[in-house]
Amino acid sequence: MQLDFHYYATYCAAQLAGFDHEESQLIAYCSQFTDCCTKTLLKKIGAPGEAATTQLQVELADSGSDILSLQKITRIWASFHFLPRDLKATRARCGKSFLAKYRLICGPNGELLADTVELARGKGIEAAGLAMHILADTWAHMYFAGTPSLAINNTNYYFYEIVPDGSGFSERQVKFNHNPSSADDLEKGSYTNSLYQGTENSVMNLGHGRAGHFPDYSFARYRYMPSWGEYREIVKDNPSDYLHAFTQMIYALKYLIGTNPVFETGRYDAIAADPWMDEILRILRTRQLDSSADWKALGEKISGCSIEDFDQNKYLKEYTDAPKDSRDNTVLGRYILAALAQKSMVTNRIYRSGSRLAGISVDFTGEGQKIMRDFGALIRRAQSDD
Amino acid sequence: MTKIGRIQKVLGGILVMLYGIIIVIDNPEDGIRIVAFIMSLTFTLRGIQSLIYYLRMARSMVGGKLTLFRGILLLDLGALTSSMTEGQTLYIVLYLAGIHLFSAAVDLLRTVETLKMRSSEWRLQAIFCATNAFLAVMLIAGGLVMKNLQIVLYVYGAGLIYSAILNIVSAFRKTEIVYIP
Question: What is the interface pTM, i.e. ipTM, of the complex?
């Protein structure tokens, strides 16, 4: 997903869930900031690098293919962008190494999603925004895993776009190219993807890199053969999936604000979205590279307020100007705590499933544990909660 | 490319360069045998690597059989090349020429593919293709036409040194990465 959905559509969902304009903007900001919060940025402002929720291309390029680098990549991408659907998934006739990666395949309505939303409850607006990013991505990044893997994430020539044609649909093979400077061409059906690398752990095989930005477009409908799929084809209908993501965000946000008593997976709040459904469907189905203007207009219609453009640096100064011992009370401070908690939770779940792909995890609330310095803030919070 | 990756590439280049120098200064018969031995070892190790990857991961992925076939083919090539180290040097020269012609054809296909993908990598691929084709032609010309093993080894060693320099240069190139988060 891109800024249009993570920022503007998230703002709309927050409005429909009952948050006021300022809160909705903050939720939207924190949701989109998840695509900006790199270790480079955090180090620049003196924040703990372990709270990074994404990696710059150059950071990825500088990552090695050694086990520690791969675990670091997996912790970030599996925790925030490719939340695993089923860490207990089984599959016949496959090796242990394959199964460990197979279990990291992202998808909606998994146990970890419920844990993510639960973790955000009572932790402030910032944690809610972060959770909405993760929730939305489970729909867009379905069938790809947040760890470098040729065996899981590769795609091949069998990749067809299903294009609306009059009253029906037609199909055409997607033309992928590797030129980073060329924009995706919707008319010609030509999209940029990452270069084929036959090495299992190449960063080119991370997430949906081999399918390019295509899964991030709300209008996209396609069928393809995922590398892990035993030669079975998958049909992906993004307008439908993105609508599920939108209405699930409303449902989850209503839980976080206290309107809904519980959060259960597989439930959506289509009733709240119903008055705007025609407009939402129109935006989701419109073939365009960026739907920001449309979502922004809808958000402003819903709230009657003007929505600020996303500014990544908006809260950096508040954080750097605050005394070190009170930084946890700033917007970024709370966001960083939420990110650390989320990463810790997902790493722990993956570790407990028997996989070392995200590293070794310790219970930070346990006694006598030697833990990483960056997670000290979580211990302090846990102790103050007690 | 990672810093470790760059160091590996530079070290690999230096090793190939040393290998090139050794076969140039060694006596022709031994030089040819060293070439065949190194090629045999490389094919065998890569074959084993492919087979292990097939058993651990690729057997469960779409198109994974190709990894199995590649592993078997490389092991076969390794065994075949190893048997050549004890044979007549003429056959070794012919065999090496065949291998380089095959590599040139593969590089040509890669060049065409990268050109189609509009990636700037095609220039480097084209240079690899030309180097392999040149080596094959020189092996045939020196070994079969002129029947002079020393010339073959000079040309072959020069080709290896050139290839090593290219490898070292490519380690310092700016990394172009397309990753879609």
Answer: 0.82
